[in-house]
Amino acid sequence: MRFLSAAARQIIGLFVGDWLQSIVVVLILAAGWFAVSRFGLPALVILVVLLAGQLVWFAYAEGLKQSRRRSPS
Amino acid sequence: MGQQLFIFGAAFLGSAVESTEALTIVLAVGLTRGWRAPLLGAAAAVVALGVLVVAFGQLIVTTVPESALKLVVGTLLLLFGLRWLHKAVLRSAGVVAMHDEQHAYEQAVAQLESAVTTRDWVGFVLALKGVFLEGLEVVFIVIAVGGTGHGFPAAVAGGLVAAIVIAAVGVVVRRPLSRVPENTLKYGVGVILTSLGTFWAAEGMGARWPLDFVSILGLAAVYLVASRMAMTLIRRPQVA
Q1: B167-178 pLDDT, tens per residue?
Q2: In angstroms, rounded to a whole number, what is the distance separating the alpha carbons of residues B60 and B130?
Q3: H or E segment at A7?
């Protein structure tokens, strides 16, 4: 049973490190699905920029959090 | 041909990273408790993973419509790749400790030494669990990378060759592969998988990429620049 729950945790953990970030990525893709079919290439470019932007934002936020944890003063 | 090579390379690199982690566990068990049980455990895990690849791979490729497959697998691949990339950025920026195979090896040995039983099943279960759980990532990479781009055989070959190469190196050196630049590999593979995920998710939405598969290189460049930007921002001294 413990093995199965570890396997289930591992499978979810493959895709989700931070739930908020995962939700944001899915929302960007959902918006992209709507926009790409109507606006074509410009929407595709915005989709990629948003995905790259969220990577910068969440990594930066996590970096700040870790740095503050290291030096609480 | 270029696409098949790309799929082979992505599956090979991604699988090599995970195979290195699985090898560390098998080595830790084998060198402290003998080889029979961990080798049997690893073999059982490899068989179970092989069944998963064949069953799910064929099922997914033959029954799910291509656009839905691209959208779902692309989204999952994007989430998977971003997770690796996110971690690699934090490690490269120095805010999270680097993954260290020597440390992982010592942890596994300590875990084994605390197990007072001398029965072989402890080594068997530890090797089975380690190889199976690390192997799940290999299975996902192989199915996701190969299943959507008509490159399933190339992806399976990439995964198999990686596992064989890492196992062979492990047999020769008989100690954790701490010199494998695992964090750098994970960073590179993270960029590739994130780019592939974006490419397929968008194709699943009905988008047509300029230059088709070649645009993955452009996507990789965008994610590379974004990750470097994140590292620079994190390393920048904070103003109080």
Answers
A1: 888 888 777 666
A2: 26
A3: helix A2-15
Q: Indicate the residue of A41, A52, A58 with minimum beta-carbon distance to B223.
A: A52
Reported as a single tens digit per residue, the pLDDT across B25-78 is 888 888 877 888 888 888 999 898 888 878 777 777 677 787 888 888 889 889
CB atoms near residue A44 (< 10 Å): 21
Say if B144 is an interface residue toward chain A (CB within 8 Å).
no
Interface of B with A in 66-125 (CB under 8 A): 71, 75-76, 78-80, 82-83, 85-87, 89-90, 93, 95-96
Q: Do A36 and B202 touch (CB under 8 A)?
A: yes
Other C-beta atoms closer than 10 Å to the C-beta of A66 total 15
Residues, chain B: 240
Distance from CA of A41 to the nearest CA of B (A): 8
> ipTM of this predicted complex?
0.88
Which of B80, B202, B234 lies nearest to residue A59, judging by beta carbons? B234
